[in-house]
Amino acid sequence: WAHNMAGVFPLVCVSQPYAWGKVGENSVVAQLKAANEGSAIENKPYAELWMGTHPSGPSQAHVGGNIRPLSSLISSAPDTHLGASTSSSFAQDLPFLFKVLSVRTALSIQAHPDIALAKTLFQKFPDVYKDPNHKPEIAIAVTQFEALCKFRHSSEISKHLHDYPEFALLVGKGAVDQFLTKTSNGSVDDKDALRSLYEAFMRASPDAISKNLEALLTRLRAQPSDASSKLDQLLLRLSDQYPGDVGVFSPLVLNVMYMNPGDSLFLGPNEPHAYLSGDCIECMATSDNVVRAGLTPKFKDVDTLLAMLTYSQEVPQVLKGRETGEETDTPDATVLVYRPPVPEFQVDSLTVRKQYTPKTTTGPSILLVFEGQGTLHQDGVPDLALEKGSTFFISAGTNLRFTSPSGDLVMF
Questions:
Q1: Hey, how many other C-beta atoms are within 10 angstroms of the C-beta on 51?
Q2: Taking the alpha carbons of 233, 238, 243, 249 in that order, is the dihedral positive or negative?
C-alpha cells in the first residue's frame, strides 16, 4: 500500500521493563508481546506495553513490505490517517497513548497535571516533566485489580486517625485537632482541613516516618491473623514493597478500590492515585507527565503535588462500559463502550463470538487482540489473521468486519 492510503497497519510495540512490573510468564504484557513477535519470554519485569507514538516508547508499523515509525506513517498523510478534525485539533499526531499494565508491586502515589500546569512544569523542569500535555487516563481491569484513588470522606479519615494511632502521631497533634474541629469530628468534608492534614502527613520528618511506621508494623504483625483487616494486610504488603516510605500510610487517606475484570476508573487531572496490583488496559492523552509523592525510589515532587491536588473527597465511580447506552449485546458479539469526559479517546471492549461490524470511525484507532483468534475483513484488501497479541493501527474512516468461527475473540 502507498503510505497515503488509509487502511489497517500491523504494529510492533515497545514493552517497558519498570521494576514494579510482573515478571516473566506471570505478566499479561509479556504474554501479549511474545505472542505478537513469536519471541521468548525472559525472566525480567514486563510492566507496560505501549501502543502509540509517544517518543519514550514509539510503535513501528508494517507498511507494504517495510517497517517504519507509526509517527512517520501518520505525519506522511495526517488528514488521511487521523481524519481532518483529529488532525487539526491535535497537531497532526495521535491524540492518545494505549497501554497494557501488569502490576506486581505498587506504582508511586501520583497525580497528573492539567494542561496549564503541564506547560509550566515542562518549561521549568524539562528533565523531569518531558512534555507539555495533560494526562487524563482510563484504566480497565482485565484481572482482579487494586488501586488507590481520590481522597476518602472525612468520616473515614477521622476513624483511621483513631484506629491507627501511629498515623495520628505522624501527622501531629496540632494538625489532627485542627482537622477534627473543622470537620466536626469527620461529619463534614472540608477541603482546607484535608489539605492541612495531608500537608502535615507528606511533610513529616524522616525520623517521625520511620518511628511511627515501625510502631505500626510491630502492632499489626503482632495481632492474630483473624483480627487483621484487609486494610491492615495492605499496609503490611506496601511496607514490604517500599520499606520506610511515607506512602505506606496512604490507604488511610485515599480510597482503596477493588476492581473486577471489566470495571474501569477514570483518573482526571490533579487527583491522587496509585495502582497496587493486577493487570489493566489503560488509555490516556499522549503524555508521560507524572508528579510523584510516595511509594517510589524516584524523585518526589511533594511541593508541586500538594499545590496541584483538588482535595475533593469522594469514592470514585466505577464504570462498566454500559453507561453510554451504546453497548451491543447480541448472540454474535458484546461490545462495551468506555467514554471518559475528555475528547482525546474512548475505549471499546469487543468480544466477538461469531461476527461483528463496527461503526466506521471519524478518527484513528488502535486495535489489540487480547485473546482468541479470528479474521479482520476489509473491502478489496486481503484478510488479516487476528490472534492473541496482534496489534494494529487503523486509519480514520476504514470499514472493517470481524469474524470468529472458533468462539470468543476478545479485543480492545
A1: 25
A2: negative
Question: Looking at the annotation, which residues are catalytic?
Answer: 292
Assign 384 to helix, strand or coil.
strand
- How far is it, in rounded angstroms, from Cα 66 to Cα 165? 63
Mean per-residue pLDDT for 200-218?
96
Environment class of 382 (CB within 10 Å of its CB; exposed 0-12, middle 13-18, buried 19+) = exposed
pLDDT value of position 1? 42
Phi then psi for residue 217, to 5 deg, are -65, -40
Residue with cell 509479556: 30
* DSSP H or E segment with residue 235: helix 230-241
CA neighbor of 99 nearest in space, from 160, 148, 163, 56: 56
- pLDDT, tens digit (0-9, with 9 covering 90-100), for 234-275: 999 999 999 999 999 999 999 999 999 999 999 999 999 999
Quick one: cell of 112?
Answer: 497528573
Comparing CA positions, the residue from 370, 318, 320 lying closest to residue 99 is 370
Cβ(369)–Cβ(392) below 8 Å: no
Give yes or no for a contact between 54 and 97, defined as CB atoms under 8 angstroms apart.
Answer: yes
Q: For residue 74, how far is the Cα from the chain centroid?
A: 25
Beta strands in 295-332 (DSSP E): 328-329
- Phi, psi for residue 341 in degrees, rounded to 5: -80, 45
- β-strands 401-403, 8-12 pairing: unpaired
pTM of the model: 0.95
- C-alpha span between 395 and 402 (Å, rounded): 16
Q: What does the pLDDT look like over 143-180, one tens digit per residue?
A: 999 999 999 999 999 999 999 999 999 999 999 999 99
Cα–Cα separations (whole angstroms), residue 215 to 119, 210, 222, 299, 374? 42, 9, 11, 26, 56
Q: Tell me 53's DSSP state.
A: -
pLDDT of 287 higher than 90? no
pLDDT tens digit sequence for 295-323: 888 888 999 999 999 999 999 999 999 99
Q: Residue 347 and residue 137: Cα distance in Å, rounded?
A: 11
Higher pLDDT: 207 or 127? It is: 207
DSSP 385-403: EEETT-EEEE-TT---EEE
Contact 99, 50 (CB under 8 A): yes
Whole-Å CA distances, 99 to 49, 169, 319: 5, 40, 18
